[in-house]
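Leucine--tRNA ligase: structure tokens wanted.
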Amino acid sequence: DLKYTPAEVEAKWQKQWEDQKTFKATEDPTRQKYYLLEMFPYPSGRIHMGHVRNYSIGDVIGRFKRMRGFNVLHPMGWDAFGMPAENAAIKNNCHPAAWTYENMAYMRDQLKQMGLSYDWDRELATCDVSYYRWEQKLFLEMYKRGLAYKKQSFVNWCPSCETVLANEQVEDGGCWRCDTEVVQKELEQWFFKITDYAEELLECTNKLPGWPERVLTMQRNWIGKSIGCEIDFQLDGRDGAIRVFTTRPDTLFGATFMSLAPEHPKALELTTADRRAEIEAFIDKVKKTDRIARTADDQEKEGVFTGSYCINPATGCKMPIYLANFVLVEYGTGAVMAVPTHDQRDFEFAKKYELPLVVVIQPEAEQLDPATMAAAYTESGVMTNSGQFDGQKSESAKESIAVWLEQQGKGKKTVNFRLRDWGVSRQRYWGSPIPIIYCDCCGAVPVPDKDLPVVLPRDVQFTGEGGSPLATLDSFIKVDCPLCGKPARRETDTMDTFVESSWYFLRYCCPDFEGGMLDKTRAQYWMSVDQYIGGIEHAVLHLLYARFFTKVMRDLGYVNVDEPFTNLLTQGMVIKDGAKMSKSKGNVVDPDALIKRYGADTARLFSLFAAPPEKDLDWNEQGVDGCFRFLNRVWKLVQEHLQVVQGAAALDAAGLNDEERTLRRAVHKTLKKVTEDIDERFHFNTAIAAVMELMNTLQGARLATPQAAAVMKEALELVVTMLAPFVPHVTEELWQTLGHTTPLSATAWPVWDAEAAVDEELLVVVQVNGKLRSKLSVAVGMDEEAIKQLALADDKVKVFTDGMQIRKVIYVPGKLVNIVVG
Ligand code: ANZ
Ligand code: ZN
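Answer:
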């Protein structure tokens, strides 16, 4: 067929791949496995260009690795629980399940139209009971071990979504989904004890060389390990003490007041009668601001004096006790020894409320004076006003003061993590029910194994009144206590959908396994994921939870790996006219329309060619058009040479003339570059560019001899093969056109002929002021500037140019460089 018609070609090969289950993955211990995974989509309705890009990137790697002989697992599924389904249900008066499954069907079609090499037999949807049932079982195993527990706590609450948000889901004080300002609310909530794994989660960030440093840094900061000590401050005139956490024991002698979180358990007890009204009003006010705003640097520091004092254990001085808005109850001990001279927040606070300043660390260069200081001095220096520690370096005084406190039983060294336990309760319907029953006699009772799973009931009404319909559904709530048989109530909270995405990559190893969460042998074969690909927006949330789950499941005996993802690629965004594609900006390009107009191969090619994977991709129509024209050129070149190819003699590499050898060199150099660009660097854009360049060379080639035809035949076959991971449909078709009966997807990736790829060299002499000083061997085709630089850097040349001024460098092509010095 002389005309390239993508629709026809693509339908044909998609059908063949589907019928023959080309990409079905089977565990085979004799073969080396490669587990490739892109973050699974939320079934929002349609795929967007970000998906197209993400999955195209993955598909290149998958197809390439397959051709390189790996046993590739490349699965796809649906992150199918979550709020949008409920919101859509309220808005359109349909059931979240119906909405979700319809969307999945539509998007599955779209993905199939892209020709992605998935093993569709492993498809899973997290809203299927066959999936979340195992999550409930795991929840109970975690409950048994104290890794899932319930506590009363202040939670981030989105008044618009009417649900609890994890800290990770609060962005700049707003809800990550709807941007509504988040408020604090006290509720009984289920938590996963991720803090038990804080140390290991941190430690292992040093064992992930295949992750972007940026992501590792974000994870480390999120875990936030602080080394310091806890110090007890006796209350003045009464029993008891206040314990603080500090990373700066070296500043102890400079602590002049105490700041407590407004929610600190001792806050009211320490408040004297005359201060009570003011303190209560302050607590009320602070509770209404969310924790992100409270800790923001530019937040006005505010506080109220309780009327009580405590004693500095080092100086014996009386310190007034304040409540302060920037002290958080859930970090450290919820109390801070305030050192206004060396901590900026304390400095601002002290200035505002006229509290005393004592300098205890002097910088080497200047003399600090509390009366004139404009800001806290937060660096290290020499100890002063600190009794026996005076004169020591502050860095070493950290240790000496900690030891001194320990000896007197007034303090001890501790480690603190910023990481909080993961709140997983959601007051929503469309999620996995938490398998717990509450009984007035027996308390919280796990649903017995034989009664699992707790199936999410379908017969619910969506009023739009907010709150979960489960909470009022008697047929769900009313249940007999599994222990005593008396009437009891079911938990009506469902799990955070991040729970489902924390182990889906494990379930892909054995999605049909009915004997439990994981088939150990199969999971052991595939894990860990060799390459994970997704957006940078998941750098903290999803990736940390997935790492945590892997470690929990390891400790429960399900898997034998410590880390889920060996290599991580975070792809850039797709932007148009300089902005992220979004409905609100009206700059969305619809993949359906694109595929309809140009075909999937062009859509894939453009999204791979226009930028390296990690960079943002700037969408432009001309670029898409250019890719389409390129594929047409490839198509045409093959068609035009069919007769030549069919009649070509066997290639005799040793018997080629100069022209033929030069052409063949270009072909094999390209193969080498494309192979290395794909395999080592994922530089798909430069790989594609190299093939485009080769195409230009081939289009100008003369076919004067039988060997020239043989070289052309090899060249066309290699061009088609090299493009296969990027544009799989058109290349399969051309491969068949070229006379092959085995499909390209089942063909091994070719190895370049190293000898043919070697650059021909030529000898260039180097003169300094006209005298021969050196000879250079340079590649044919090396550009002038590079040759001049090479000449100037030559050791033998440098003897004559060192210390001289270079006046001119003259190049006579292919022959000589003359350096004029003076
Ligand atoms: C005295 C001090 C003096 C401090 C100084 C710092 C500088 P990171 O590194 O984040 O762990 N802090 C302790 N608990 C707090 C809480 N619940 N809310 C707000 N701030 C709290 O920070 C540790 C430091 O943060 C601690 O060390 C404490 O102030 C404060 F020149 O103690 B520091
Ligand atoms: Zn009971």
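The first helix runs from residue 6 to 19. Residues 225-417 form a domain with the Isoleucyl-tRNA Synthetase; domain 2 fold (CATH 3.90.740.10).

Cheers.
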